[in-house]
Amino acid sequence: MKKKVTLLDVAQAAGVSPSTVSRIVAGTARVSEKKRQQVEEAIQQLKYQPNLVAKGLVQGRTLSIGVLTQDIASPFYGAALLGIQEALRGTEYVPVFMDGHWKPEDEALALQRLIGRVDGLIIMGGHLEGKSLSALAESMPIVTIGRTIPGFEQHCATVDNYAGARNLVRYLFDLGHRRIAHISGPDDHVDARERLRGYYDAHKDFGMDIDPKLVVQGDFQEASGSLAVATLLESRTLFTAIFAANDQMAYGARLALYRRGIRVPEEVSLVGFDDTRNSEYMMPPLTTVRQPMHELGLSAATALLKMLNDEEVQLEKITPQLVIRESAARAR
Amino acid sequence: MKKKVTLLDVAQAAGVSPSTVSRIVAGTARVSEKKRQQVEEAIQQLKYQPNLVAKGLVQGRTLSIGVLTQDIASPFYGAALLGIQEALRGTEYVPVFMDGHWKPEDEALALQRLIGRVDGLIIMGGHLEGKSLSALAESMPIVTIGRTIPGFEQHCATVDNYAGARNLVRYLFDLGHRRIAHISGPDDHVDARERLRGYYDAHKDFGMDIDPKLVVQGDFQEASGSLAVATLLESRTLFTAIFAANDQMAYGARLALYRRGIRVPEEVSLVGFDDTRNSEYMMPPLTTVRQPMHELGLSAATALLKMLNDEEVQLEKITPQLVIRESAARAR
DNA sequence: TTGTATGCGTTATCAA
DNA sequence: TTGATAACGCATACAA
């Protein structure tokens, strides 16, 4: 470890006061050209690197923002993280990622770690109840993706899961499907519930009843998609299409179908939700609903940055787009 | 924003000196049970939260570690991040992730941001040359995953890409394949070069020459896998198996094959490298070489933590395991 | 065992 | 435009 060179060293080397150096580095005030030259030269020579911790202490901030995800290894969250990084690029801020693993305890723990170490928070998904969220939002700048904070709606970038699902299922109806199975997500998951509701209401739109046997619950993981198909098949319920509540479960379903020699989309159509990175490379490419996670991450982070800068922000609810590929076809 | 309660406030409330409070919070010295009670009570009541920035300043550390990846949204890196988080759990440290996007400029930028804000670094992949890495490693604790720092081999968790590839190709030979195509990775990428070398030497092992037309270069992304298959097919070179240098390209290749009605593994066998999350759900499930990224992340972070604690560490080169699934079969 | 005093590296306040 | 000087919140050497 080399000895650290501080602002004071630079000041001495350049023959000016520390405050002058500080002003130059931060660009907060006008300084004579001559001194600027000297100081910058000294900075070069000494390879001065400002100590951000000290800066943080005096300014009462950490220059970092916290990001709470639920599964950092999933391409779904990954895309958002990319967007967040993009927004942070060129700023002084750095992201600290913590994962809730979809488990309330872990989520609480992660939050615990984050609070006090970051200037603002981006929260994605999770089980944290509205009240806690609101309380948190009182005490520090927070934006969410895919969740709503009661009383702070303008700080929440949400996706209209209901409309997305409803449109998707209507699309299947338009293709002539009448027996559409649904692999739902966990029922304590808002997004999952909303998608289920969209599925129901699309049926209503077409004046159809729903056979309860057609909806099987999964957990948003691939394996549960496979399992759900097995359940569906064993129940001997007729269906010509499957709507998986997310793409990961659709992959699992796809594999299960393949195992049984059921062709997609010739024999059954299969659609998902999210438009995860791999969906384009599923066989056949998956028809799904696109959640623009990259954009959401980008705009959430941008908004948070503004909030940290005491600006007003207004995030909105967006309706995700249908992405038509090849896994759904006209019903036989 | 509420007024912050500091250690001083606690001290006053408890009627003791600040240093006593500090000692109790940090647990660095024995304190009489009575005062401890008082102080802890005061902490509870005031909801005192230590300011980590101040702590960091006085101790000369940041209590965070930097993680440099190349594509945070890829399941490949994601698994490692999960491992890193697992290792950090229960410690005071928090991870700061930055992405190099496989681009030297971005990588340099990311590193720039990280240095000075973190106590140690985990570097995964990337283009940074050995000398720079070594220089960096002189100045701060660094461990790498998948790369070697000249002079600091014990701080590098590496995977024997060469052996992995060679074993994999030999497995194909054992299945009777003699015309094995290779979709290679970028040639400025060490891992890619090593895998190519394994491919070559497996041929040598079986006394076979290589038809240069059989190796097509990709860029580790899905699309390049599709493209490579097109190139291969157009060149009218005969092959009964394809070894893609990573799973992502294998997915692309798989889709291209499907498009042309070529069955896997009946007509051509397809294998990849990495064992990414989705490979198990490819159709058919992909035979590949497993890089234990989760474990690598875990052990790298654990090692870094030890280094930060002035302990010696010794990371090792591991040989990745062949994962036999269904995408490769006996040659016709 | 406890308290006092000092310093970590920076920004901000106030004079000059 | 510049320079002293006082914070920022905590840990620690030293004294008691």
From TrEMBL, chains A, B:
The keyword Aminoacyl-tRNA synthetase does not apply. InterPro entries: HTH_LacI, LacI/GalR-like_sensor, Lambda_DNA-bd_dom_sf, Peripla_BP_I. It comes from the Bacteria. The keyword Flavoprotein does not apply. One of its GO terms (molecular function) is DNA-binding transcription factor activity. It holds the Pfam family Peripla_BP_3. Signal peptide: none annotated. Keywords: DNA-binding, Repressor, Transcription, Transcription regulation. Residues 5-59 form the HTH lacI-type domain. PANTHER family: HTH-TYPE TRANSCRIPTIONAL REPRESSOR PURR-RELATED, LACI-RELATED TRANSCRIPTIONAL REPRESSOR. This is LacI family transcriptional regulator. It comes from Deinococcus cellulosilyticus (strain DSM 18568 / NBRC 106333 / KACC 11606 / 5516J-15).
